[in-house]
Automatic annotation (TrEMBL):
One of its GO terms (cellular component) is nucleus. Its main location: nucleus. This is Protein Mis18-alpha-like. It is found in: Chromosome, Centromere; Nucleus. Transmembrane segments: none annotated. The keyword Zinc applies. Keywords: Cell cycle, Cell division, Centromere, Chromosome, Metal-binding, Mitosis, Nucleus, Zinc. GO terms for molecular function: metal ion binding.
Length: 216
């Protein structure tokens, strides 16, 4: 068969690209051949660079654990025994469940180890540009409610500001028309506050802060 006519084999991305990519969200593992979801990082235990595998503690629904106990004769797990894991969709090999291990691999024993050369990895939210934001935040109900609350606060501040300004004007008039003797007024025009203006009421500090003399 001509080389150009051979069906292109499915190859996973180079391992170094996967390692360098920063992980910011949950991961979904899919069968490389049929794209069936065969696990996710909510069951994540660890990833092992030497084994080129990710280890899950729970058995995903879409995998099948074989029955034959095999014996490793080479590699990092030499001397171990394991059972193969297969994809329920296409029956492809996905990884192993080690039954006996050397001491340094004890942490993966009886767990579900997916070989990264047999699965695709999809990170949830990977399509979202982290710098993007909704163009109109007011389309969100919570934002509308926040805007209504802000408008109410603005109105309240304006009303209070008007009342304070009126009070200040009234007090300034009183101070300017009072003699040096202490004078007690029973009330202001706007409320029942009692005003006491002591001797030296023309003092600059009193003119500047007339509300310091409001009692009641
Ligand atoms: Zn499959």
């Amino acid at each position: 068969m001509d080389q150009a006519n051979k069906p292109s084999a499915i190859k996973p991305p180079p391992q170094h690209n996967r390692v360098l990519q920063e992980i910011t969200g949950p991961l979904v593992f899919q069968c490389l051949k049929c794209r069936l979801i065969v696990g996710d990082s909510f069951a994540f235990v660890t990833a092992d660079r030497e084994l080129n595998s990710v280890v899950l503690y729970a058995k995903p629904h879409n995998i099948r654990v074989g029955t034959d106990l095999l014996w490793s004769r080479e590699g990092i797990d030499i001397g171990s025994t394991y059972i193969m894991i297969y994809c329920n969709g296409c029956n492809s090999t996905l990884g192993k469940v080690w039954r006996t291990t050397p001491r340094k691999l004890d942490y993966i024993r009886d767990l579900y180890t997916l070989n990264l050369d047999c699965v695709m990895i999809y990170q949830l939210g990977d399509f979202i540009d982290p710098n993007s934001a909704p163009s109109d935040i007011h389309t969100l109900p919570s934002s509308k409610m926040q805007q209504i609350s802000i408008n109410k606060l603005k109105d309240m501040i304006l009303i209070l500001n008007e009342r304070i300004t009126a009070l200040e004007n009234t007090l300034n008039k009183r101070v300017n028309t009072t003699s040096n003797d202490s004078t007690v007024f029973s009330s202001t025009e706007d409320n029942n506050a009692c005003i006491v203006i002591p001797r030296g009421a023309q003092d600059k500090s009193i003119e500047t802060h007339p509300n310091h003399r409001i009692l009641g």
